[in-house]
Amino acid sequence: MQATESFVTDNQAATANEPSFANGRVNIVVVGGGSAGWLTAALLAADHQADPLVNITLIESSTVPTIGVGEGTWPSMRATLARIGISETEFILSCDASFKQGSVFRQWRNSSPQDCYYHPFTPPVAANELDIADFWFSHHQQVEFAAAVSSQPAVIAAGLAPKRIATPEYAFLQNYGYHLNAGKFVALLSSHAKRLGVTHIVDDVVAVQSHSDGRVAALQTAAHGALTGDLFVDCSGLPSLLIGQHYQTPFNSVQQYLLNDSALAVQVPYDDERAPIASATLATAQAQGWIWDIGLPTRRGVGFVHHSGHANEDQAFNTLAQYLNLSVQDLSARYQPRLIRFNPGYRQQFWRHNCVAVGMAAGFIEPLEASALVMVELSARFISEQLPRNLAQLAVVGERFNHTFSYRWQQIVEFLKLHYVLSTRDDNEYWLAQRAESSIPAALQEKLLMWQQFVPSRYDLPMAEELFPAASYQYILYGMRHLPTSKRPIKANLGLRANQAFAEVQQKTQQLRAGLVSNRELLNQIKAHGLQKI
After folding, report:
1. Given a cut of 80, is residue 487 above it in pLDDT?
2. I want to staple 59 with a disulfide (CB 3.0 to 4.6 A). Which of 49, 79, 201, 234 is the partner?
3. Residue 187's CB: how many other CB atoms inside 10 A?
4. How far is CA 4 from CA 59, 61, 361, in A?
């Protein structure tokens, strides 16, 4: 969704006859389709379908394609899909989806082909009882942290699924999210949202009409006249039609912390339709960036993330072609890679008056750790659960939203930066620049100081609902072999429990290896059973 050439903002007071939020009614207008727009509309419609006072309209342009990346989710997507009423079987079959159990980082510590560590979705064993990392340190030369505290790395390495065909929908034996076809996901969400009562308008927004106090009163469309509303959700993507173009909300670039501003993306079919489907996102570091590689049932999605100042377009094509064992000519002729440019950062405010930005209209950092869709989920859930019913509530909710999501965007920057600063790669200026001390956020520097002795814990993460829990920081820190320089005292009586926990992981690993089928086999079983529950 973007503005047409004639798009203007009209600061004159609108001539709407009805007051905002009249009699408690809330007319919500979602501007832009794509994953952000349709996921937000579907969740709002599902949550409020029994309330006749809530009406939802989504307007999108027919001439603006979506970017079509963002094909990885977090485990939170299972709850979101269940909440909006889509069965897991329907989702998997409609979206060419596969199971994602975390991320595998290859050659991030150094450029050795053997270098590899895991960030699984399943938390460390006995996490509610003790900090198991304290007891792993003495064994770090014998076993990787993730393998010691979780069975999931072994499941991922074996290409196994996280559940069985008899496991109920959205339940699991190992925690999981999904890889999916972004275009098909949008189509499913659109169809479902309209069944839930969302009004769909295909048209271009050409102007914005405002109330005298600055709130958006209506959107002037090319063919449907003025579209009035009480709350406007800007899901227009990078053009940021309302929060950016209309309100001129400043943009916080974070390129001083995270350099990447480009991605060369391609879709590659399997050579053999029976080829294994990776059970995690593969993130492989390169001299001038890193490559994502995700497996769907019918193809792989692969992309080279880099900084245009360290890798030009020719170098990007060469890097991606080499990874895929292709010539640059074959890569270009057979698969037509797309070069996507982006400015990493986020808006200083996401909620202005009666307009709130969701998705890339709010911000985008980079694809590492696939935070884009979960930020849409969290934003939509916040809006739905705190949906204002009058102007007084509107101001309070907006302030809360801005506070919460400013913190979350800052946390994304810190967590992604952690992946780079711990690397010892020195084969290119890119890596030296990514871990330069001047490029490390002050809050992350403080955490790294504390982690010289303490393990990441709730004391580092003050929010009740953290985007990245302490376990995620532990998986990255200790996966990158960033161990404390001094050990803190630990309670001797917990040693027995820790040893029991380590043994439980090994026993569970053996059971899962014996009892799970491959990622592809489970997906084939789901397809064969059609709408039968999994």
Report:
1. no
2. 201
3. 14
4. 14, 9, 16
Contacts 24+ apart (CB under 8 A), 339-343: 339/262, 339/263, 339/264, 339/313, 340/67, 340/69, 340/262, 340/263, 340/264, 340/265, 341/261, 341/262, 341/308, 342/238, 342/261, 342/262, 342/263, 342/366, 343/251, 343/253, 343/255, 343/261
Instruction: Extract the tokens encoding 319.
Output: 């890097």
Q: Assign 533 to helix, strand or coil.
A: coil
In whole angstroms, what is the distance from residue 59 CA to residue 225 CA? 12
pLDDT at 468 over 60: yes
363 burial type by CB count under 10 A (0-12 exposed, 13-18 middle, 19+ buried): buried
pTM: 0.94
Mean pLDDT for the stretch of residues 412-426:
97
- CA-to-CA distance for 185 and 189, rounded, in angstroms? 6
Contacts of 291 by beta carbon, 8 Å cutoff, 6+ apart = 282, 283, 284, 302, 303, 304, 305, 319, 320, 323
For the chain, the residue count is 534
- Residue type present at position 143: V
